[in-house]
Amino acid sequence: MKKPPTGAPLLELRGVAKAFGQVIALRDSTLALHPGSIHALVGENGAGKSTLVKIIAGLYRRDSGEFLYDGESVDFSTTAESKAAGIAVIYQEPTLFPDLSVTENIFMGRQPRGRFGRIDRGAMRTEVESLFARLGVAMDPDRTADGLSIADQQMIEIAKAISLDARVLIMDEPTAALSGVEVDRLFQVARALRDEGRALVFISHRFDEVFALCDTITVMRDGSYVSTRAIAETDPDSVVAEMVGREITDLFPKLETEVGEPLLVVEGLTSPGVFSDISFTVRAGEIVGLAGLVGAGRSEVARAVFGVDPYRSGTVTVAGTRVPANKPTAAMRAGLALVPEDRRKQGLVLDSSVGRNTTSVILDSIAKLGLVTTGAENRAARPWSEKLEVKANALTTIAGTLSGGNQQKVVLGKWLATDPRVLIIDEPTRGIDVGTKSEVHRLLSTLASQGMGVLMISSELPEVLGMADRVLVMHEGRITATIDREAATQENVMRAATHSSSTESEHAA
């Protein structure tokens, strides 16, 4: 870790404010970025981080405050102006043109021309090969972007930024969908860019990564600046306290419950090439964690159990009722609910209201003469919005405008409104802040204490170990271990996840 640089900042915002109608997104925000530094920007969902980044990127214009770049006052009105100044934003899920090649994506809109004005494809390819060599990335410049992993897509965006000679790179939740190896590669590239004298911003809810990578950290809360410190001069507990304005004393508030009868019984579930011979049980009052590395088949099993994806053989039974394959409506009637991994694409209709999203799976129960009014939607949605403390101006608020944590609460409310017996929840706290994580964990624990069965899929081992009564571990489409709460450790879960050695297990029947 490098010592934070001193001297004049390359980019600085002072007392920046931004409002959208009556909603105040930024009140008094300050950020100073120095060349040759990796600067963490942290805060709860809704703290104003994204709004601040969008002002830097030229998507929004500030209402007040100062914006200095290279010591001069600037006011970007378009993203093109921000990019031209040398600022690049790399988002969690880049938006490349899937049908174009890697090279064409990097040079989109600025292709070099040769004789007679023709695009010089040779020069483009040579430049891309040079960029990839510099980044230590092995990728075919001629392959299409379609099918590339998120990690490779991010590397393309970084290569594009370097080709534009970007001096400021902002990485917004870049590791959320990456494996450990991909994260290591990204960090190597980030450190190399820092050592070239560029200023990097790293936005993440993963404190282990923040403290491993960054030199400086700025904390925001409720749209306002809280503090900036050298990473070496602070610690995760202090940062959390500043982020939420209170201490989070119990991130995993697990309640002791009496485990009851089997609710979900999965036997011999097999989908060739995806997963094989999956058998487990979830009982009333029990939280069962499903762990494993990215690509192990965890989400695919969940989707098959709920009937979204087909499977060739095996059975799914809920409270004694056999659930037919590939029929989500039958799974719902039996008492299953699925909160998917990708809440934005699979869990919500982003252009619809909070009320409409919350009631989207219970329309039959609130319809009168086949019609559903907005009033009926809101009356049914309000109890869940209040219980889950969704931070929205009204139930008519568009779901896509909410923070990630509040979107997750809406998805949870939607499925809890069905009064399920078993809740399957995939990556319950991915991309949400530590305060909301604690709230989600408390909710899951409360639901289990009330007799619900919970199957929780998570890539965060502390979450699995902190919340699960039993841990099922998957490796390459198979369950390799079932470990009781008392015996589960990061070491034996990872051994089973990598199948590096035999792990004692007693598979649930």
Automatic annotation (TrEMBL):
Cell membrane as UniProt keyword: yes
Record-linked SMART domains: AAA (SM00382)
CDD domains: ABC_Carb_Monos_I (cd03216), ABC_Carb_Monos_II (cd03215)
Main location: membrane
A single MF term (Gene Ontology): ATP binding
Coiled coil location: none
Keywords: ATP-binding, Cell membrane, Membrane, Nucleotide-binding, Repeat, Sugar transport, Translocase, Transport
Compartment list: Cell membrane
Residue ranges constituting the ABC transporter domain according to the UniProt record: 11-247, 246-501
Membrane topology: Peripheral membrane protein
GO cellular component term of the entry, any: plasma membrane
Region (Disordered): 490-509
Protein name: D-ribose transporter ATP-binding protein
Source species of the chain: Leucobacter chromiiresistens
